[in-house]
Amino acid sequence: MGEIDPAFVQEQEHRPKLSIIKAKGIPEIDLSPLFHRQVPNPPAVESLVKEIRSACKEWGFFQVTNHGVPPSLRHKLEEASRVFFAQSEKKKVVRQDMNLITQWTNQSPQYPPNFRVIIEEYIEEMEKMAYKLLELIALSLGDEAKRFEEFFKDQTSFIRFNHYPSCPYPHLALALDDTKMPVR
């Protein structure tokens, strides 16, 4: 087979269908009403609260769009991660000893030079969005908007980047090809 371990080759009847399957019915909530004005429109916020209440009750989760995290920032993050992963393994590894309990170090990459700054900006924007969602969820439960804030005020954010080479034969195995899931 060449580049694929035979252990990963699926029987014909179990091989993946390579067409994209779009889930139907998953609630998609457009957060743009929060960003149209300096102060959000109360009826628009109430409409979002109702959508979130319904999504949480019926599905237990939802997808958000127009969430205020700039797409340009996500693109910068993706490009910087591509540059990082294009390095040799020796340059990517911070240390060989993986005893994280006794030898913790900040593992933010130094290369590319702006990677750390981009990561910090991205985390900051994602946290803003998360707090807005927490407020909307609290309101959907009939509570005050800031109800959950105290539980997260001392939180620490983590971000992990993984890179898996694409499978050379995705039609034979349960694997990923060069396409990627959409991120909005």
From TrEMBL:
The keyword Metal-binding applies. This is Non-haem dioxygenase N-terminal domain-containing protein. GO terms for molecular function: metal ion binding; oxidoreductase activity. InterPro entries: DIOX_N, IPNS-like_sf. Keywords: Iron, Metal-binding, Oxidoreductase. The keyword Zinc-finger does not apply. SUPFAM superfamilies: Clavaminate synthase-like. PANTHER family: 2OG-FE(II) OXYGENASE FAMILY, PUTATIVE (AFU_ORTHOLOGUE AFUA_2G00750)-RELATED (PTHR10209:SF885), OXIDOREDUCTASE, 2OG-FE II OXYGENASE FAMILY PROTEIN (PTHR10209). Pfam families: DIOX_N (PF14226). Residues 26-93 form the Non-haem dioxygenase N-terminal domain. It comes from the Eukaryota.
